[in-house]
Amino acid sequence: MLELIALNAGYGSVTALHDISLKVLKNEIVTIIGANGAGKTTLLMAIAGLLSQVSGCVRFEGAEVGRMRASMLVTMGISLVPEGRQLFPNMTVEDNLFMGAYKRRENKKNLIPEMERIYEYFPRLRERRHQLAGTLSGGEQQMAAIGRALLARPKVLMLDEPSIGLSPKFVSVIFEVICRLREEGATILLVEQNAMAALEMSDRGYVLVNGRVEMTDYSKNLLSNDIVRKSYLGFA
């Protein structure tokens, strides 16, 4: 579904990602772990078309997309749930969700079945659908951000720190929905501070250090790797 080959990207004249190569297969959850500042968010932004690509290749379903506009990538099927949610605070929850389908130019009535699907994943959003997004709790906002991305009908869903700042109750809900999406055929690229939980529900993982891939393996192997356990999973 998604392949990066020797990708170099960054901010203006500063290169933050160095020779990044990775793959995300169809119906797979791939986790990216690393310390703060390792380049995890930068990587997702580069894939989403939000950063300048210096060199290398980004392929989506076999086609080169590395220099396409972000809006075109959404239309093709790459959706990013950004760190910090980034909702429209003065719009209702429902209108924020509808924004996910903006590029499809469809009548809202045609989107009702998909909205119902989002409300099935997150019943709390149904209760809050007429409430301003800026008045929601952090967990509720994260649900809305994921719902908005799903309304774009992504073929690859990218999630940037979906559990950050959330209570254990909301973290559990978010992770359950991620697993459910994969069971329903979704393909997910996940950046997550809770490395243990992320690896436990993913198929493969990449360890990012200073903008470079230092290690990659099946998640079950990374969970038992002594370096990963000591550096990222909290084991002495």
Structural features, described:
The protein has ten helices and ten strands. The protein has helices spanning 40-47, 70-76, 93-99, 112-121, 123-127, 138-150, 168-183, 195-200, 219-224, 226-231, and strands spanning 2-11, 14-24, 29-33, 52-60, 63-64, 78-81, 156-160, 188-191, 204-209, 212-218. Strands 6-7-8-3-9-10 form a six-stranded mixed β-sheet, with helices on both faces. Strands 2-1-4-5 form a four-stranded antiparallel β-sheet, with helices on one face. Helix 3 (93-99) packs parallel to helix 6 (138-150). The chain is globular, with a radius of gyration of 17 Å. It starts with a strand and ends in a 5-residue tail after the last helix. The model has no long low-confidence stretch (mean pLDDT 93).
- Number of contiguous helices: 10
Helix content: 25-40%
Structural class by SSE content: alpha/beta
Total strands: the figure is 10
Concise synopsis of the structure shown:
The chain has 236 residues and is an alpha/beta fold. It is 36% helix and 27% strand. It has helices at residues 40-47, 70-76, 93-99, 112-121, 123-127, 138-150, 168-183, 195-200, 219-224, 226-231; strands at residues 2-11, 14-24, 29-33, 52-60, 63-64, 78-81, 156-160, 188-191, 204-209, 212-218.
